Task: inverse folding
């Protein structure tokens, strides 16, 4: 059977993959770092534009096995690739994050601490995985897309020349991630064995007809699938790779890991749990609630003791993953499984993710701006008084950190927390809401510690380093992320509307 | 937009704009920045006075009618903000909030003016002024908000600027070092109060998801929420406000924060920031979950009286001036909370006037304590003594403020404390009678420790520190900053209707729905 391929639906993915190829060609023929970087950035921005344009069109789908109803105007059922509004949203986010991370990489590329061609190519490949992930309609597409997103990162993490930490980080990441993927695949295979379907909508339907024995198998499969995906968002107890990997990676790659890579994990979990496995929400809800509680508590408590900046951010991003998963954990109770509660939980998780990604990107951009070109994150003590030397960058970093803590003036973070607590209370999981709230208190302790260091007076032992000029691509990325954080802080309705797609 | 809506928006916009402008002033124009900030604070004060226009004046309480909300603001501003989070930009002013609004703008103006004259420590004064203005926005927003989520947002706005004021300008003012006590105090303040406000968040959404609206006007009276929901909501909200007020045993952040904060920080903290807790308790916790309030009232009353007694006893043993005044706040807020706990019109009116009186008098006391510490560089009661010989005017003022604070009839402190006790007595029954008697005993203890304070500081022979210090007279700005508070302490004491005239009707309406 031949299939018609709807190329228009695939356009953003084509653009993303094309960017990767063009970057390689540019590196080969032009062989100038600036040109390679420019091609990569322009390509990712074009991808974002194409995906944004797709969002205004009716949904399209391709690689479908189901027959459309004769008079249907909607997309046919059982498709592997669904380019609807949410796919567009995910693609736009990935493309913009990639563009921003590329801009942040400019100083590292200039001092040649990483090879430009390979670096930009790998990031573009990873972006392609993210763009496809948003449109995935079956488990196989989803897992392959997620791997396309992650595979280039193993290399990117280890790309820093002459750095042992970087190689260690890459190996840790690689080993853990391969195990995680194997577990995910096992879960998917068991689900197929029990239900004979990999398409998310077919799985959803198949649950009604399964026998008790198969139901047990499905429940095991659901847990395995979730455990594997939890690696990607660095949820406790599957988080141990994150701090080592973030700290060893080049700063922009750490930024990518904690934003785009985490976004990929969240998208995968949302698609699987809500679209495919909602009939098993009782199981997945309990699993996610446990994961969420452990993740935010362990992440926050361990972050309290960190002395290295990136490690602190890594642990904090572990904790943030807990807040993202928490709304889905409300499905553990019957009140949390109604349609209203589900919509609210998904919207809260997506909205929190968007707010988080913006703030985290701003925080990393500020770190890049404050550090010498190509340097790692350093220890927190090295940032002593940094905000006095760079008032604007310092203010942006403090805004991002306070936003991550969920307090004004970081209104974006405040509304993110509000959305999560609202959905939890509305879903009848008040106890989880209280835990989220108490964790926010623990979180403030370390965010405010870092912020205070930034404004602390410099003493003799930490001699004031010379004021470094912030390179303009970094300044643009930082300014853009901060501006977006401010805008969505005052008009969070944009994000909440987008999250409902 | 009519005049009232405009005035409401301006009440928040003026200080907010002032903070932004002052923050952008370059370092070389520090003094100009401080002056500019003071000008904005002055405009804000004038605007808050203008808010009075349109009020129903000192009319007699109207009986609450069926179908009419107990909250009837005379100005309202209601704009859509974030429908996805049930958040509307809904402001309103009524007799409960108006006195606190004016107190806030007045104290901020005085503090800004004081900062023009004297900035603690080496840090730029214009940043301190900008932070004071941001704090003002948060406090005013809390008092004016008529939407639960908006109330929560403004409640949170205050937190970090106050942290920065204590951590940046607190302690001995040098602002150096990580491990200094003022940083620890600031951190304790931030974490403690955030603990309260996150519970507020959960409580707010417990109410919203049960009642389906976040509008305080519609919610006052319970809005038909079931008893278990009201109990849960009241517990969450009451704990949140108890941390802010602070109610014993959740008060431990307060003495450290007060002691370490710079003078203006202490004044704002004691003067109006604590009132966010008591105001929230009246407006939100009692108003929205009346069943919960009735259920928890005895517990609140017992804790309030414990705060009065324990606060007074601790004060008797204090050896540091600012710390003593800080602990006295625990006792005074105990009286306010006792008034609220009675859930009677008398009690809530006593709480309102107690709020204002405490803001005025304790603000003045902290100004005076700051003046003493400026001159003698110590607040230790052992080191001070015989102040009246060297500085008769300052010690006279200190005596006046202390006597006002201990509740001498004719001064502002009297009404709140006396009528909290009266309200408890009128509630009747063994529990409330016992509480009233104990609270009255606590009042006597208050007198004891303030007289002890005066004996140690102003009387007796001049101590070596006092003799050696350079006792410059009271600067003009100091006099300007203190004079309104001195006058108000007397005026509110002689004419309590200044506060209660406006509050009578809304309190009566609130008590009707709670009953």
Result:
């Amino acid at each position: 059977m031949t299939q018609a391929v709807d190329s228009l639906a695939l356009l953003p993915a084509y653009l993303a993959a094309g960017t990767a190829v063009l970057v390689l060609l540019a590196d080969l023929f032009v062989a100038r770092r600036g040109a390679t970087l420019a091609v990569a950035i322009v390509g990712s921005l074009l991808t974002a534009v194409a995906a944004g344009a797709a969002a205004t069109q009716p949904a399209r789908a391709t690689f479908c096995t189901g027959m459309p109803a004769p008079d249907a105007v909607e997309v046919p059922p059982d498709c592997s690739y669904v380019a609807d509004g949410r796919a567009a949203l995910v693609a736009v986010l990935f493309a913009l994050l990639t563009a921003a991370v590329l801009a942040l990489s400019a100083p590292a590329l200039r001092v040649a601490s990483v090879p430009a061609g390979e670096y930009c190519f790998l990031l573009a490949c990873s972006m392609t995985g993210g763009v496809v992930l948003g449109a995935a309609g079956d488990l196989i597409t989803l897992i392959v897309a997620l791997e396309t997103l992650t595979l280039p990162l193993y290399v990117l993490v280890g790309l820093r020349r002459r750095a042992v930490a970087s190689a260690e980080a890459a190996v840790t990441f690689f080993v853990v991630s391969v195990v995680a993927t194997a577990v995910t695949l096992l879960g998917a295979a068991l689900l197929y064995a029990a239900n004979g379907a990999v398409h998310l909508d077919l799985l959803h339907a198949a649950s009604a007809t399964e026998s008790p024995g198969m139901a047990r198998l499905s429940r095991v499969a659901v847990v395995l699938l979730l455990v594997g995906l939890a690696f990607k968002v660095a949820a406790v107890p599957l988080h141990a790779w994150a701090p080592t990997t973030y700290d060893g990676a080049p700063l922009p790659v750490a930024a990518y890991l904690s934003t785009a890579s985490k976004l990929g994990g969240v998208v995968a979990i949302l698609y699987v749990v809500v679209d495919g496995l909602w009939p098993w929400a009782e199981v997945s809800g309990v699993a996610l609630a446990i994961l969420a509680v452990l993740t935010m508590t362990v992440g926050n408590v361990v972050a309290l003791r960190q002395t290295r900046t990136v490690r602190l951010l890594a642990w904090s991003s572990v904790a943030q993953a807990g807040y993202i998963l928490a709304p889905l954990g409300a499905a553990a109770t019957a009140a949390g499984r109604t349609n209203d509660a589900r919509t609210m939980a998904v919207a809260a998780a997506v909205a929190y993710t968007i707010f988080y990604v913006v703030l985290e990107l701003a925080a990393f951009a500020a770190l890049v701006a404050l550090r010498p070109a190509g340097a790692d994150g350093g220890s927190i003590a090295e940032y002593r008084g940094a905000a006095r030397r760079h008032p604007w960058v310092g203010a942006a970093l403090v805004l991002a950190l306070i936003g991550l803590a969920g307090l004004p003036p970081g209104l974006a973070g405040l509304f993110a927390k509000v959305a999560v607590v609202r959905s939890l209370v509305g879903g009848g999981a008040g106890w989880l809401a209280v835990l989220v709230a108490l964790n926010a208190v623990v979180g403030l302790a370390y965010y405010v510690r870092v912020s205070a260091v930034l404004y602390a007076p410099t003493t003799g032992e930490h001699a004031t380093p010379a004021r470094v000029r912030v390179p303009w691509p970094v300044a643009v990325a930082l300014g853009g992320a901060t501006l977006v954080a401010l805008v969505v802080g005052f008009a969070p309705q944009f994000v909440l509307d987008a999250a409902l797609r | 937009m009519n005049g009232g809506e405009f005035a409401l928006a301006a009440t928040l916009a003026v200080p907010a704009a002032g903070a932004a402008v002052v923050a952008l002033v370059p370092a070389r124009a520090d003094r100009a920045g401080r002056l500019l900030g003071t000008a904005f604070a002055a405009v804000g004060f004038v605007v808050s006075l203008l808010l009075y226009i349109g009020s129903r004046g000192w009319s007699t309480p109207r009986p609450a009618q069926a179908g009419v909300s107990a909250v009837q603001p005379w100005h309202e501003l209601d704009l859509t903000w974030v429908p996805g989070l049930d958040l509307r930009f809904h402001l309103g002013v009524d007799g409960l909030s108006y006195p606190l609004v004016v107190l806030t703008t007045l104290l901020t103006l005085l503090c800004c003016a004081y900062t023009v004259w004297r900035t603690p420590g080496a840090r730029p004064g214009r940043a301190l002024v900008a932070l004071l203005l941001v704090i003002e926005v948060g406090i005013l927003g809390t008092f004016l908000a008529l939407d639960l989520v908006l109330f929560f947002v403004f409640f949170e706005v205050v937190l970090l600027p106050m942290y920065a004021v204590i951590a940046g300008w607190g302690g001995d003012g040098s602002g150096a070092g990580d491990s200094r006590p003022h940083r620890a105090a600031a951190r304790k303040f931030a974490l403690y109060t955030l603990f309260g406000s996150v519970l507020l968040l959960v409580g707010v959404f417990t109410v919203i998801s049960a009642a389906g609206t976040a509008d305080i006007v519609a919610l006052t009276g319970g809005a038909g929420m079931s008893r278990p929901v009201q109990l849960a909501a009241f517990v969450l909200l009451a704990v949140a406000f108890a941390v802010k007020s602070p109610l014993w045993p959740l008060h431990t952040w307060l003495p450290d924060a007060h002691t370490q904060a710079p003078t203006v920080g202490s004044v704002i903290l004691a003067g109006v920031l604590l009132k966010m807790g008591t105001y929230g308790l009246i407006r939100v916790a009692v108003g929205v979950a009346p069943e919960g309030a009735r259920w928890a009232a005895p517990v609140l009353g017992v804790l309030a009286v414990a705060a009065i007694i324990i606060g007074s006893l601790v004060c008797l043993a204090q050896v540091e001036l600012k710390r003593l005044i800080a602990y006295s706040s625990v006792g005074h807020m105990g009286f306010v909370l006792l008034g609220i706990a009675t859930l009677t019109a008398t009690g809530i009116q006593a709480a309102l006037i107690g709020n204002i009186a405490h803001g005025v008098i304790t603000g003045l006391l902290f100004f005076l304590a700051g003046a003493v510490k400026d001159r003698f560089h110590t607040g230790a009661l052992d080191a001070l003594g015989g102040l009246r010989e060297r500085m008769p005017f300052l010690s006279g003022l200190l005596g006046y403020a202390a006597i006002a604070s201990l509740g001498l009839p004719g001064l502002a402190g009297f009404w709140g404390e006396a009528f909290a006790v009266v309200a408890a007595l009128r509630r009747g029954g063994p529990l409330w009678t016992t509480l009233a008697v104990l609270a009255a005993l606590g009042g006597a203890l208050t007198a004891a420790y303030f007289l002890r304070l005066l004996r140690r500081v102003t009387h007796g022979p001049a101590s070596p520190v006092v003799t050696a210090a350079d006792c410059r007279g009271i600067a003009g700005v100091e006099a300007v900053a203190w004079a309104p508070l001195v006058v108000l302490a007397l005026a509110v004491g002689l004419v309590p209707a200044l506060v209660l005239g406006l509050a009578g009707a809304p309190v009566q309406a609130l008590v009707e729905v709670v009953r």
Q: What stands out?
A: Residues 15 and 454 of chain B are 37 Å apart (CA to CA).
